[in-house]
Amino acid sequence: MSILERTRDGLRAHSLALDAVLAVGVLLCMVAGSFVDPHAEGGPTWGAHTPDALSFTLMVLGAAALVLRRRGPRAVLAVTAALSLVDLVTADPRTPVAMSVVVALYTVAATTDRPTAWRVGLLTMTVLTGTAMLVGPLPWYAQENVGLFAWTGMAAAAGDAVRSRRAFVHAIRERAERAERTREEEARRRVAEERLRIARDLHDVVAHHIALVNVQAGVVAHVMDKRPDQAKEALAHVREASRTALEELRATVGLLRQSGDPAAPTEPAPGLARLDELADTFRNAGLPVEIARADHGTTLPTTLDLAAYRVIQEALTNVRKHAGQGARAEVSVVRVGPNVEITVLDGGTGEDAGPGDTGAPDGHGGHGLLGMRERVTAVGGALTVGPRYGGGFRVHAILPLKNHATTAGESA
Fold first, then answer.
1. Which among 374, 213, 396 is positioned nearest to 306, based on CA atoms?
2. Neighbour tally for 274: CB within 10 Å
3. Could you tell me whether strands 289-294 and 329-336 are parallel, antiparallel, or unpaired per DSSP bridges?
4. How confident is the model at residue 106 (pLDDT cuts 50, 70, 90)?
5. pTM of the predicted protein model
6. Domains of the chain and CATH, by start
């Protein structure tokens, strides 16, 4: 905090004492001015006359009223204006009691709104100047009457200017505080979204690769004694799946350990271009997967491409985990107008299926189904998951290309 700000805060904390000092200063100025004769020959002369008891009393009362100018600005203005009217009508020569009116009018203009300030200022100028011209001992065209009009007008204008500046500074500070709160809320929202994205990626990686490792481990245990060659092949698949899982987990967890902005990934995000590679991992685990594509060579934006890949990966993982013996999966990617539709079907018995992963309509979905829905919803799409007639399950996702940029080679 600067010295000026500390001084300002200290004065605000002792405003009554500050107003008392101001009142004493105004009183001294009024008393000093009352000894000046502006009409003396050769110009204003000091000590040409001495104020009488009434004039001195009016000056003391006007200055004393200013001590309470912050607590009751309009009442103080009324009191000082009344004292000034008495001085204008009775005093000859006139004493500068109107100085207290100028300070009081400035206070009113600085503490109220603009229309009120100008109405009160205009009323004060009219009453004082009109009284001085019509009833006062001086001619109506005397320079003191014009000066009275000018000083009261400047007091109202100065008070309004100070009020406007205070309102402007307050608005700037409020806008800055609101912007700071908005930045903090936006930062929290982005952190929550990033945590959710990382959680989805971790689930997809773990669920997919661990399911494959589990299946291959079961194969190894079953054929170890009778068919060692097949067991070795299954162990190779286990090693490959675990290695891939560890690499993806290391990359994802590495993002959480970085204090600054994460570095750009060295490998592209998975997408439909790796669909055949994904299907091979499930085929090696014993799940027949058929792929049919009729997307006419459409190249999806990165967000849509990743969402499509993860939906298919999660759906196939659920098929492998829960569809039962003899299961097979069918994957289709079709371009339908402005959308790309992805369908994953399985014909398994589903005896081991759990509602969390298979998407049964009981509302108790697990992280797999929840992750698929969040990914599809995030890109403006729709996801439906449910049992098929005659057995098995169906996962159907609609990913809109609208509002997403596509490559120039995309088909119409």
1. 374
2. 15
3. parallel
4. very high
5. 0.47
6. 3-180 (no CATH), 271-412 (3.30.565.10)
